[in-house]
Every structure is written in C-alpha cells, then in structure tokens.
Amino acid sequence: MGRVGAVAEENDLTPYWDTALASLTEEELPAQQRAFVTLTQPLGLVGDTALVAAPNDFTKDVLETRLRPIVVRALTDTIGQDIRLAVTVDPSLTPPVDDDVTDQMADATYADDAPSVVAENNEAQPVRDEAATRPGTGSPDTRSGDGRLNDKYIFDTFVIGSSNRFAHAAAVAVAEQPARAYNPLFIYGGSGLGKTHLLHAIGHYTRTLYKGTHVRYVSSEEFTNEFINSIRDDKASAFQRRYRETDVLLVDDIQFLSGKVQTQEEFFHTFNTLHNANKQIVITSDLPPKQLQEFEDRMRSRFEWGLITDIQPPDLETRIAILRKKTKQERLVAPPEVLEYIASKITTNIRELEGALIRVTAFASLNRQPVDLTITEVVLK
Fold first, then answer.
1. Pairing of β 185-189 and β 41-46
2. How far is residue 129's CA from residue 116's CA, in Å, rounded to a whole number?
3. Residue 285, strand partner residues
4. Which ranges in 187-296 belong to alpha helices (H)?
5. Can 13-94 and 155-310 be said to share one CATH topology?
6. 40 contact partners, CB below 8 Å, separation of at least 6
7. Contact 274/310 with Cβ under 8 angstroms?
8. Where are the domains of the chain?
9. d(Cα 90, Cα 93) in Å, to the nearest integer?
10. CB of 87 within 8 A of CB of 58?
11. What is the per-residue pLDDT for 148?
C-alpha cells in the first residue's frame, strides 16, 4: 500500500480513507465486514487522529473492536504516519440497508468468539450531557417500521428560520390536508439545507393524523433502480402497484432523473395516476422546475401544477439554533461561544454544520479536554 502523499487539505480524511479501504484485499477485509465500514463517514484528520462517524452504537462497536487493527494499519500505511482511530456516533447517518441485511452482517462479523467491547484509552466519544435523552438509539437503524422514513426527521426536530419558514409551513399544510392543500408540493434548494428532513416529516405527520395512510418515501435513484429491476425481472406490474397505490408519494432529488428517458416516462404515468386519484405528491430538487435539464416540458409543467417553494442557506441565528438543538438531541456539551464560532465558520450546509460540532466534541473527548474555543479552532482550522 503506497502513501498518497502529503495531506492535500488539513482535516480532509476522505481521500485517505477511501484509498486505505481500497487497498485492503478480500482476505484482509471480507465483504461482510467491509459492509460495516461503508456505513461510516470520515469526518476529518486532526493531527494523528482519524475521526470517523458511525450511524449507531452497534456499528461503532464493530469498528472499534473487530475492525480497528486492520483499519488503523491501512490508514497508517496510506498516510505514512502512525494514525489513531476515533469513532463517534451520528444517528443522522441512516444505514442504506434493512435490518435483515444488518443482522447478516453482524452474524458474519461475529461468527467466532467476539471480543468484549471495552473502551480503549484513546476512544473518542462526544462529550455528553447524561441528564438528557436521545431518541432513536439502541437499534441498528433509525428508520420507521417500513424502512423508508427516518424517525429523527420530524417537524419537532426541524429548526425554523427566515430561510425555510415558508417551505416548512407548506410542508405542514400538505401533511395536514394531503392532496387538498398543494399538489404537488415542489421544494428546491441546495444540498444539506433540510429538504429531505421535510419530506420525512411530512410522512410521519400524515401517518400520525391519518391512521392507515400509505406513505412512500423514495429517492429518484432508488426509483430508477427499482424500475430497471422490475423490467429485468419481468415485474413491471408489481412495481407500478407499489407506487401507484400509495396515498402520499415523497420523491427526493428528482434532478437525478435527468436524461433517464424511460424512467421519466414511468414517473410521468405514476404522477398522472396519483394526481388523478387525488393522492399527494411531494418532490424535492436542487433546482426549480424550469431549470431542470433534460426533462420533458410536460414533466416540468406538472411540477408547477401545485406550489413551488425554496429553502435558502440559514442565517447566523438559525445556524446557532440548529447547533443548540443538535447538542440537546445528542446530549453534547458545548458552550455558547463554541456554537457561535462553528456557526460563523460554516454558513451554507446544515450537514456540514452538524458534522463540525460532532468533530469538535469527539476530538475534545479523545484528548480529555473540555470543549472550548481553542480546541474548536484547532479542529476547524
């Protein structure tokens, strides 16, 4: 395994993480164990410490016990210096697998006598407030029973500000009156601003208000893959029933259907069937309908039948409020001046904003120091 070279960008772990994992053979890291690693997300490289986020405590334990030696060795060889591994839990990282697959991964990983999970001296845990509670823990997944809606993405956890107030109000209206308020509802905005959060929140709230309502969340990539598989397996009818017999269809990142002529045709007919049956459709995109490239005019015009609303990057006050809510939800301890500093450094992406908070608290815990401005400046410089 060759060294990538001098670190191109301080705190940027991703290229080294990817190279290190790619260098491991099937014998060194079997497919079942590699699947666990793919659930994680590299957060940053601070000094000689690689900070990595796992979606739940179970994945964190696997990475810190069974997989730590091989991962540390691969990172050390790739970067060219001794590396320590610090793993923290970020429940917002929803594993892209269902519970059955997770169980199989667990069986394969711990097929022999598994080592007991003992905290190491250099283990990194976010500094937590034990008096608070954190929902959604204790399970390999944070999604609801149908495996589609993330239980953490509800209206109660969505921070409202001037940048998203109208989009939030429209989402609530749609959930309270499906197919009667705005149909379709089209939400657009940059990556990491809360569009997916609103989609899931609509689904949860609708189910709460209308028991038995069939809600289906799907990304455009998933829709495309399922459509292709239905053709391959000669199950087109089952695919169409799955999407055309739903009461509320939530479609994320519609822009990824760009140029996919057959998939667009299928979605066009799905859209018409649902709309004609007075079923609610909610769509998100990174661009407004008129700017979507390689979409037929008839498709773009249908996106404009209902209400179009956007989400803008949050202002400073909203970013601070988001960090405060994150600390409360995840039982993290960080003083106000640290939250304000993080909010002033990261201005356009909520995922990056929350990720920075997790990196800072994990690094402070690793070094057994309180979270303060000095440590925050080191981690985020």
1. unpaired
2. 26
3. 188
4. 195-209, 220-232, 236-244, 261-276
5. no
6. 52, 53, 54, 55, 59, 63, 87, 93
7. no
8. 13-94, 155-310, 316-380
9. 6
10. no
11. 79
Say which residue the tokens 């925050």 belong to.
376
Q: For the chain, how long is the longest CA-to-CA vector?
A: 62
pLDDT tens column, 117-137: 333 334 444 444 443 333 222
pLDDT in tens, 138-168: 223 344 445 478 888 999 889 898 889 999 9
Fold designation for 155-310: Rossmann fold (3.40.50)
Both tokens assigned to 375: 């440590």
Specify the amino acid at residue 67. Answer: L
Q: Tell me if residue 351 falls in helix, strand or coil.
A: helix
- Do residues 265 and 231 touch, judged by C-beta distance below 8 A? no
In b/e form, how buried is each residue of 145-161, taking b as 16+ CB within 10 angstroms? eeeebbbbbbbebbbeb
Kindly state the helix (H) or strand (E) to which residue 380 belongs, with its residue range: helix 373-380
Two tokens, residue 340 = 């304000």
**CA gap 303, 283 in Å, rounded:** 8
Q: Report d(CA 135, CA 131) in Å as an integer.
A: 13
Residue reference for tokens 């739903």: 246
Identify the three-state secondary structure at position 252: strand
Which helix (H) or strand (E) is 283 found in, with range?
Answer: strand 280-285
Contact call for residues 230 and 239 (beta carbons, < 8 A): yes
Distance CA 41, CA 53 (A): 5
Q: Which two tokens stand for residue 245?
A: 């017999």
pLDDT in tens, 202-248: 999 999 999 889 999 999 999 999 999 988 888 888 899 889 989 99
- Taking the complete model, does pTM exceed 0.70, yes or no? no
Query: Hey, how many other C-beta atoms are within 10 angstroms of the C-beta on 328?
Result: 14
State the Rg of the chain over Cα: 22
Helical packing angle, 220-232 and 261-276, nearest 10°: 100
Superfamily of domain 13-94 in the CATH hierarchy: DnaA, N-terminal domain (3.30.300.180)
Only one residue has tokens 């491991």, namely 24
CATH of domain 316-380: 1.10.8.60
Residue 308, SS3?
strand
Residue 180 half-sphere exposure, CB side, CA atoms within 13 Å?
Answer: 6
